[in-house]
Amino acid sequence: MQPSAAPDLADLAHTQARSAHWLATATATAAVVALAGLLQPGPAGASASPAAAPRPAPAPEAAGAAYPLDCAGGPHKVAERVTGDLDGDGNPETVAVVHCEAGSGTPPSGIYVLTRGKRTGDPARVVATLVAPGQHKNVTELAVRDGAVRATLLGYSSLDVPRCCPDEKEQVSWRWRGGAFVRAGEADARGA
Q1: Fewest Cβ atoms closer than 10 Å to its Cβ: which of 22, 71, 91, 106?
Q2: What is the per-residue pLDDT across 125-140, written as a single tens digit (0 to 9) for each?
Q3: Burial of 161 by CB count in 10 Å (0-12 exposed, 13-18 middle, 19+ buried)?
Q4: Distance between CA atoms of residues 137 and 106, nearest Å
Q5: Residue 9 — φ and ψ, nearest 5°?
């Protein structure tokens, strides 16, 4: 018989299964499966999206702000507050109606626009006065709609009108334009 030209299978190293061989094969297979799991595409119809947009900052707190209001040493009161994005930057501003506390009567109100403090933890700061208390107006309605501040102001046609009974009513609004709040309004003077 003629000797075979093929090598004896027992002489080939890779044909003899050893523990190290099986361990290396199992480790490599596990690594491939794990990597394939990480590189899987998302569910059908999903597409890669850019990083989520940052959330807007919360609206400034009205209570801690320093208002340009002279209460002759007495306290002031935040009577009403509303929030909304007034300047289109994606972060809300706060609009506050503030007046001096009085034992009786109806003290005039101021309407102030607040923004967040310059640093985290700083109190809100007044960036605009829409109605100053010196204008002797009272605010009965306040809202932010479509980026505009809307209010109903009550006032007096003269100093002879008792302070209990305003005789003028005005619907006004302010909108941020060109770096300032621009007022629009319609007076409704009611005779006594």
Answers
A1: 22
A2: 999 999 999 999 999 9
A3: middle
A4: 10
A5: -60, -25
